[in-house]
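Can't paste images in this forum, so I'm doing it all in text. The chain is below; anyone willing to post the predicted structure tokens underneath?
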Amino acid sequence: MNIRQEARRMKLAAPKLAAMTNEERNGALREVGLALAAAKEEIFAANEEDLRQARENNISDAVYKRLKFDEGKLKSVIDGIDQLIALPDPVGKVQLYRQMDEGLILKRISCPIGVIGVIFEARPDALVQISSLCIKSGNCALLKGGKETARTNRVLFRVIYESVLKAGLPEGCLVQAELHNEIDELLQCDRDVDLLIPRGSNRFVQYIMNNTKIPVMGHADGVCHIYVDKKADLVQALPIIIDAKTQYTAACNAVETLLIHRDIAEEFLPSLKEELEKNQVKIRASKEVADMIGCETMAEEEFDTEYLELVISIKLVGNTEEAVDHINHFGSHHTDAILTEDQEAAEYFMQMVDSAGVYQNCSTRFADGFRYGFGAEVGISTGKIHARGPVGLEGLMTYKYRIYGHGQIVGDYAEGKKEFHFKDLQ
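Text version of the structure:
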């Protein structure tokens, strides 16, 4: 495949897709949902081949869980498609409607970004989520999945692409790249690809950012924290921590560091250690904590570690301010939570922690587009420009300005013959 030619073809198809109605795009999504359900045996067979090869390569249990595409994940992605269909059309929204002068009207209208390149880790469900979001938002998508699930991705893409063409979407609205060297070709398509969204390791994301002129949106790390305040409900705290660490250990929103208020350490740490060990979670901690409960000691500079496995870091802090300072220094600005019944402490934490998601008394695992009601997500952005947090439909939109005139020229206003009379019409 010539990626540059495909990107050029997608650039030409993008305005056609953007001009399609919400009913047409929703119709394509319905076709996709039905086709995925009908092709499930073929999809599962391809996934089993990928899993067999993964087992031969001795991958970790955490990665294996990400590769597996079973009945549960199929149901989840189809539910996500149904949720997307039910959402309002993000295209063509009037964000600004202003009279500049009599007979001179300015509008700001939401529109798709255009052509989006998404390079994602070995999760087959990500291919379905990304494709669905791009269809709903009117964006063309060039997709490159991980080699670990190449067979599964190939079947999923074929089913999805055939479905959207059947529904009347333009050819070239979706393209799948499969070869590793095609990533470097994609990075050179700055004239035709409007946005890149990489999902993978820190090293991989940094490589993408440093080797392209295309704008990049995404996150490199998921160093998420839970701070257990001195006024936390300690009974409630334990299941929240276990969920955040073990429900899906390899996810970027799994907790990696626990900060415990020093005033409750003696009471809370023994039960915390017992519960973590019961769930096969290895503890690494500051010397202060290690001396109290007996575990591996870690250096201060190691608190920026993203494990993505059954390992967790623990440190004691003296107050909420100290917890916030630690998170802002060592964290990745992804998702961080405070467990407390003190609303003043919670508000301080949520105001001062500089992360895309800040929670009170719940698991960090809620950082997800589907759980936010976005239908799905193309990824989570820890940046602050354009989109932040789980990137759903809104994050895949931009806008354009339209002016409707009746022969007006700027010279008349520059020479004082006319004046602007600004008036918002909505």
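The chain is about 40% helix and 20% strand. The chain has two domains: 3-217+391-401, 224-366.
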